[in-house]
Amino acid sequence: MSAIRPLMPFPPRSLDEPDGVDLAVRLWRECFGRSFLSGPARVLLEQRLALAVDAADWDRAALLLEAFIDSWALAATVEDAGEAWREGAAAAALAVLARASEVVRLARGWASLPHGPWCLPDDRWLEAQVANLTVAPAVETLRWGEGRLPAGVRAVKSEQLVPRRSELARALARGEIRAVLVRGAVPEVAQAQLALGELRLEGSHQRALERFGLAGSELDPHGARLLPSWADALGPAAAGVSGPRLRARCEGRFLPGPITALAAGRPQRVGYLLWDGPVRALAVAPVAVAVLHVIDGQRDTDAVASQLGGPPDQVQEILDELVGLGAASAVG
Asked: Is the overall model pTM greater than 0.85, yes or no?
């Protein structure tokens, strides 16, 4: 019978699948590449966003809008991040992959793991991966396998956190373990929260595990302390070069927003500038996106203004702004 490796742990540290079915590798290959994030995922997110807006489900709409916007930068960075993770368990790479997983989850309509940001494919996806096997394990086995923990991680049920507080803190302080996986929600009562705080104080990887799940326990000590975020991977676009004829350096979309207004149920028509690279998306006036759609490397300011039916001096101001933002640059 072919070997079957479960979905977890994720992300995989290797993409080899020589002698059976590795569900983590299959999930990676299907959903964590440029082609999926820039294609099917983006289509699904836009469809789900429209449905959420129509249903006045504003909190979900805001999450979907942010995911849709992030799909541009993620599509450009996820494959390099995956390589960096497999080569050296880089903390910055894990932050990118964690955000990619959240976007995949929202696009596919899947659940998330109880620990960390990793998406949890539904039963249908899991069963499809082993459909050709004569004997397939139960779905829960496909997800978790034997439930083994990485070296240096100890698991405890949430109701045992307070009674075992001293034991766990001592093991962390001595370096016998790096982190504690708490199974179940930690109660909001003071004793439980203080116990969790002590684990975070003593455990070199406790916060990394809470943010990234079991993958966080694989980070080097510096990365576990630093805990970079997805936002840290993004920066501003380099300014363009002014000239008589401009071309677009990014994509422009009209979307309901901004994110905070959408979450509050007060959406407006907003323009977004979206780069195919590790660049922060920018919300702009819709007219800026309208201008971006017209510049083609051939039209000068007067031609752009004529196409839009606006005054040339105002159009030039918008063109200058787009150049300064790195959204447009001179041809040649």
From this structure: yes
